[in-house]
Write a structure and sequence with these properties.
It comes from Caproiciproducens faecalis. By secondary structure, this protein is an alpha/beta fold. It has six helices and ten strands; from the N terminus they run ααβαβαββαββββαββ.
Length: 222
């Protein structure tokens, strides 16, 4: 697959993963879709991993679709849905070539999946996100890691602000990671066709201040 980093297949095979979505994902879904007819709202979990966001959206009664490039991750996500009596359309796919029709979704959620790519693949992924969204639909991205956070500049440099096999911090040994600046985000999302681009950010430390975690959150509309 064009954009999927196979390092994630090994990660999902050998590590347990979070079971719950981030607070910012919950806020995005609640603010935009809670008051609508949930069964009629089609939502896509981009790079779903083992299904934390998928599980949450399905539990809240939405029509949920999800994909990941990892066979293992998709299997674990399906297994969780089955165990909890929920349903989502889960498949194995690449984010740069989505298997969905044009103008299909009301909302898309990217929880740290877009960051795991080169700049060129990020452009392709954003174009695909724009294609599959309905007019007026929204894309929410979180985990767009900032230039300068722990791990930035370590490992193999692939291009400006893109590194592979980072050696420090929470992103160590997580395959390819692209780090963003706010101006770049605004340019990339605009070039893909998005409007009403709202950018927020979060900064915190972990492990007694050893690791600095910094990332952008972006809400944009077709």
């Amino acid at each position: 697959m064009a954009s999927f980093d196979n390092a994630w297949e090994e990660i999902f095979q050998n590590q347990e993963w979070g079971r719950y979505p981030s607070e910012e994902v919950i806020r995005f879904i609640a603010r935009n879709f809670y008051k609508k007819n949930r069964a009629q709202i089609k939502l896509l979990d981009i790079g779903c991993g083992t299904g934390a966001v998928t599980w949450y959206m399905a539990r809240e009664g939405f029509a949920v679709y999800a994909f990941d490039g990892s066979e293992t991750a998709a299997h674990k996500a399906r297994q969780r849905m089955q165990e909890e009596g929920l349903y989502a359309h889960i498949c194995v796919s690449d984010a740069a070539s989505l298997p969905y029709s044009d103008d299909f979704f009301d909302g898309l959620v990217d929880s740290a999946a877009i960051s795991g790519n080169t700049a060129e693949n990020i452009k392709k992924i954003l174009q695909e996100c724009f294609r599959v969204l309905k007019t007026g639909g929204k894309l929410f991205s979180t985990g767009l890691f900032k230039v300068g956070m722990s791990g930035y500049g370590t490992g193999e440099k692939l291009e400006e602000n893109t590194y592979r096999e980072i050696t420090e911090g929470n992103l160590a040994h997580r395959g390819t990671i692209h780090f963003f600046e706010e101006q770049e985000i605004r340019a990339l999302w605009s070039q893909a066709g998005f409007q009403n681009i709202a950018i927020d950010s979060a900064d915190r430390t972990e492990q007694g201040g050893q690791n600095r975690i910094s990332y952008f959150m972006v809400e944009a509309q077709k």
